[in-house]
């Protein structure tokens, strides 16, 4: 028997609060949270470890068949990434890892390689899935699409706090420059560039606290799916 699963697609640039908001909304609504950026980061890490050029499509394509990429969920509901059996959930979260992820994400061969993994999850569970092309490519029939954004400075400030809290000594200027570069790379690439789906609801979190953003998105989800 096929059960109808619900899907919320949340797309937007890095630092808009997508993952924190998507995770909280999923928990409140009883959906599974799928962080697709973590999947691209895992490919980026594999490419970095192989000392390959992340912009070289042929070199990256040659590595893909040897990669076993999976994700599962810890007891607290946190998504864990596994690369050939190793838990790489922390190893993928470095500024260098972000650049590798962004570079490999521009390669059509990588996007095609990861597509089924993402769709399979949404066909077997109700999901809140965040990324860059979820509403446009991965789940074009998602019941609710949200394009979550915020000004560059607001996003850089938030990311700096996160990095500094983890002991990373990056400065505001470093983070702002990295983010601007990554925005440009993600939005200008030919393969599935970052853009809002035509039927996406736009949410700008520049002047919202995290709690306000979560409440706002939750209200959209509940209204769209008639959840009480
Ligand atoms: O959300 P994030 O910062 O963890 O994503 C890492 C990189 O992966 C980012 O530069 C954009 C890319 N990405 C993508 O192209 N498509 C997705 N669905 C998710 C992430």
> Strand order, biggest sheet?
2-6-1-7-8
State Rg. Answer: 17 Å
What is the CATH homologous superfamily assignment of the domain at 7-36 and 94-222? P-loop containing nucleotide triphosphate hydrolases
What is the helix fraction of residues, given as a range?
Answer: 40-55%
Tell me the structural class.
alpha/beta
Reported for the largest beta sheet, the result is: 5 strands, parallel
Hetero groups in this structure are: 2'-deoxycytidine-5'-monophosphate
Q: How far is it from the N-terminal to the C-terminal residue, by CA?
A: 26 Å
Overall form: globular
| H/E element sequence | EHEHHEEEHHEHEHHEH
The count of β-strands is 8
Report the total helices.
9
CATH class placement of the domain at 7-36 and 94-222: Alpha Beta
Strand content: 15-25%
Mean pLDDT: 93
Give the low-confidence spans: none
CATH topology of the domain at 7-36 and 94-222: Rossmann fold
Tell me the CATH architecture of the domain at 7-36 and 94-222.
Answer: 3-Layer(aba) Sandwich
